[in-house]
TrEMBL record:
This is NAD-aldehyde dehydrogenase. SUPFAM superfamilies: ALDH-like. The lineage of its organism: Eukaryota, Fungi, Dikarya, Basidiomycota, Agaricomycotina. CDD domains: ALDH_F1-2_Ald2-like. The active site is at 268. The keyword Oxidoreductase applies. It comes from Crucibulum laeve. Gene3D superfamilies: Aldehyde Dehydrogenase, Chain A, domain 1 (3.40.605.10), Aldehyde Dehydrogenase, Chain A, domain 2 (3.40.309.10).
Length: 503
């Protein structure tokens, strides 16, 4: 029996959202559990609906479906041209339903509908189309061994069944980042969306079926991370697990993968990204990018520029400009197109962020903006800026994942680089300078997988993204992501050498 819920969108429009597990192109109940996951609107704290929570046995069923599809209707059994056609069809359907998906994303995640539609979904459509273009261009090498008798060549085979675990901060965007390269090379997928934001992943599953993908190619299993995520990470018939989320959970996934079948792992983890403002920079533009770095997605961003360091000669002027920029951000109703920021995603995240704000106050940092709770319903955290920081403060050292900015000061370029690199993370970093030589020196010296020069937080689907240090391993986006979902096979072909035996 189909399991659905009715959700009311903008203007009173009602849509049907599937609430079952998506396995073999059908929405089904759990095989052994009555557990449910509640999807909550973080702006109102109201429950939107509940969805089936997958059990370990459900994960087994989904993995089995993915394996069967890999062996029969997908994997090496379908051409790159056909994979490309289906991925492009899926992109078309997401583009068709962009407004509906954006409103659903806003209700379940809190981000403004304009941001969800024009940025997250717009980028997701581009991501799918980018990898659709790669699907018929997966190539190996021909290698000279002995021209008279032998040659070797390589094949880039799909790695197999992939467990994909995505976070709640970009439910649709992270779905596309994981799904697109995996499908392009011929992998099958068991997708576990966050238990906080399962609705759009389930709605996207309808579009997977409508696009014409064979049953079992993409399966969606909402569940608690400690249940579904753990089951995928330790599953003996999962060939690769891809995870975006916290460093703590990333360690658990890597350990489980090692203890089970040594499956391939890619991890995009936390960050505490620095943003350096040098005296030669365009200060107005630098302030705009720094504001974006901490305000975008209400600071719930793994690359959030949560540590801004300013050269002493421009410090006072820049702080004033930055505060005015951040003040201009409208944090409110996500269904209003004037809104730039929404609530944080959940009560747990709300309490976490406010805990850090209080810690910053107690440790002696100076609040120059925000730091005061709103009354009423909703998980609202207005952008908060701290100055007078020290490197050992919790707000400086630990990832907050909210709109909380620490502002420091430096005198020299070497000091700026040292402050920036003084972290266990290495996901993103930014610098602003109109000195070209300085831009080259500093971008080279910063220990991060992505460095932005005179901009921040802008990603492109053809440019790789990933971390260093405790920000993860592996790369997403660009041609590099294809390597995460393929295994290289070397074929040695003897066409002329005769073996003398015995040796």
């Amino acid at each position: 029996m189909a399991q659905t819920a009715t959700i009311t969108l903008l203007g009173g429009k009602q849509i049907t959202v599937p609430t079952g597990l998506f396995i073999n192109n059908e929405f089904v109940p759990s095989v052994d559990s009555n557990e449910r996951i509640e999807a909550v609107n973080p702006a109102t704290e109201e429950v939107l609906c509940s969805v089936v929570a997958a059990s370990p046995k459900d994960i087994d069923v989904a993995v089995s479906a993915a394996r069967e599809a890999f062996k029969t209707t997908w994997g090496k059994n379908v051409t790159g041209f056909e994979r490309s056609r289906l991925i492009n069809k899926l992109a078309d359907l997401i583009e068709r339903d962009a407004q509906e998906l954006a409103e659903l994303e806003t209700l379940n995640n809190g981000k403004p509908v304009r941001i969800a539609r024009d940025f997250d979904i717009g980028d997701s459509v581009q991501c799918l189309r980018y990898y659709a273009g790669w699907a018929d261009k997966i190539i190996g090498q021909t290698l000279e061994v002995d021209n008279k008798s032998k040659l070797a060549f390589t094949r880039h085979d799909p790695i197999g069944v992939c467990g994909q675990i995505i976070p709640w901060n970009y439910p649709i965007n992270m779905w596309s980042w994981k799904v697109a390269p995996a499908l392009a090379v011929g992998c099958t997928i068991v997708m576990k969306p966050s238990e906080l934001t399962p609705l759009t992943a389930l709605k996207l599953s309808e579009l997977v079926k409508e696009a014409g993908f064979p049953p079992g190619v993409v399966n969606t299993v909402p569940s608690l991370g400690s249940v579904g995520g753990a089951a995928l990470a330790s599953h003996l018939d999962v060939d690769k697990v891809a995870f975006t989320g916290s460093t703590i959970t990333g360690r658990k996934i890597m350990e489980a993968a090692a203890k089970s079948n040594l499956k391939k792992v890619s991890l995009e983890l936390g960050g505490k990204s620095p943003h350096l403002i040098f005296e030669s920079a365009d200060l107005d533009q630098a302030a705009s990018w720094a504001a974006l770095g901490i305000c975008y997605n209400s600071g719930q961003d793994c690359t959030a520029g949560s540590r801004v360091y300013i050269q002493d000669t421009i410090y006072e002027k820049f702080v004033k400009t930055l505060v005015e920029k951040v003040k201009a951000q409208v944090t409110g109703d996500g269904l209003d197109d004037k809104t730039g920021g929404g609530p944080v995603v959940s009560k747990g995240q709300y309490d976490r962020v406010w805990g850090y704000i209080e810690a910053g106050k107690q440790e002696g940092a100076n609040v120059v903006l925000g730091g005061t709770k709103r009354s009423g319903k909703g998980y609202w955290v207005d952008p908060t800026i701290f100055t007078n920081i020290k490197q050992n403060m919790k707000i400086v050292k630990e990832e907050i994942f909210g709109p909380v900015l620490s502002v420091g000061i430096f005198k020299t370029e070497d000091e700026a680089v040292a402050l920036a690199n003084d972290t266990s993370y290495g996901l993103g970093a930014g610098l602003h300078s109109n000195d070209a030589n300085q831009c080259m020196r500093v971008s080279s010296a910063l220990e991060a997988g992505t460095v932005w020069v005179n901009q921040y937080n802008i990603l492109n689907n053809n440019v790789p993204f990933g971390g260093k240090k405790q920000s993860g391993i592996g790369r997403e986006l660009g041609s590099y992501a294809l390597e995460e979902y393929t295994s290289v096979k070397a074929v040695h072909w003897n066409f002329g050498e005769k073996l003398e035996w015995p040796l």
